[in-house]
Amino acid sequence: MQSSLATTIPARALDALEASLFAIDQAALFFDVDGTLLDIKPEPDDVICDEDLRALLERLAACSHGAIALVSGRSLADVDRIFSPLKLTTVGLHGAEMRDGRGVERRADPRVMDHARKAVHQFVKSHDGLMLEDKGGTLAVHYRRRPDLGALTLGFLLRFGPGDDLAVQEGKFVVELKPARYDKGSAIAALMAAPPFERRVPVFFGDDLTDETGFAAVNRIDGISVRIGEPLAPTLARFLLPDSASLRALLWRLTEARQ
Fold it and tell me: Domain limits at 30?
């Protein structure tokens, strides 16, 4: 049974993580976006990929022969906006959307949220400081400006449950309503079943509760799971890195070793 506590950083644990990564001949690399590759911003639309990160991802894609994917709660369109003009294999909306390794895209049907959308809009409108991010196939309520409303927001969204084929996903100062049958773990497993990911060792980097299903998925097949930042709760990730800057530094060293 996997431990629920991650390896703590720095020094020896960082060396162990680096040694584990460098020992893999053929890795399949999976990255969450916000809080992992890029720092979280107060406004989701303010997040944009810088040139250094774009160059790093291009190098990683070349080193891994394309076995690299972004695994995000954002829509495919929004992930593409952030990383433009770079387009990678991408999981969007926690798995409800996907562009697979062949470039085939699956988009979410916004109608799955129709019976909840009006009520959620009204709830957010009636509570100052909340922000609704309507992604079409999911509804995310951000309470970063009003942390005191977190429990209330969670309780409200929990009214929509399995009977509606919906599930509630908590994150950092956000609660999201999404289709129940999708999560990051099942999306990673689906990608691992086909080229260019199949028969490779999965490595997943994430930072939030939304990434725990991804950690569980790669752990089940003896992959490497890495949590970015100090977790506020027990995590299934086997390793920790302190921040996105340390992740970038590690990945640059990995690309240099692969040359």
Answer: 11-108+182-258
What is the rounded average pLDDT for all residues in the chain? 90
Q: Output the domain CATH number for residue 122.
A: 3.30.70.1020
Model confidence at 181: pLDDT above 80? yes
The CATH number assigned to the domain holding 30 equals 3.40.50.1000
Residue written as tokens 């752990």? 219
Dihedral, CA atoms, 181, 46, 60, 204, nearest 10 degrees?
-40
Residue 42 Rama label (left phi>0; alpha psi -120 to 50; beta): alpha
Task: State yes or no: is 32 an active-site residue.
Answer: yes
Structure tokens at 36: 């992992």
For 194, counting Cβ atoms within 10 Å of its Cβ (0-12 exposed, 13-18 middle, 19+ buried), the class is: exposed
Q: What is the pLDDT of residues 108-145, one digit of tens each?
A: 888 889 989 999 999 999 999 999 999 999 999 999 99
CB hemisphere CA count around 151 (13 angstroms):
1
- In the listed set 179, 201, 235, which residue is the last one of a domain according to the structure? 179
Do residues 90 and 161 share a domain?
no
Strands 139-142, 105-106: pairing is unpaired
Tens digits of residue pLDDT in 1-39? 334 444 444 445 677 888 888 888 899 999 999 999 999
Q: Among 15, 25, 32, 222, which one carries the catalytic annotation?
A: 32
Residue 161 in tokens: 């449950």
Q: Minimal CA–CA distance to 99: which of 90, 111, 110?
A: 90
pLDDT at res. 227: 94
- Residue-level pLDDT at 19: 85
Q: From CA 190, how far away is CA 192, in angstroms rounded?
A: 5
The answer as to whether 3 is a domain residue is no
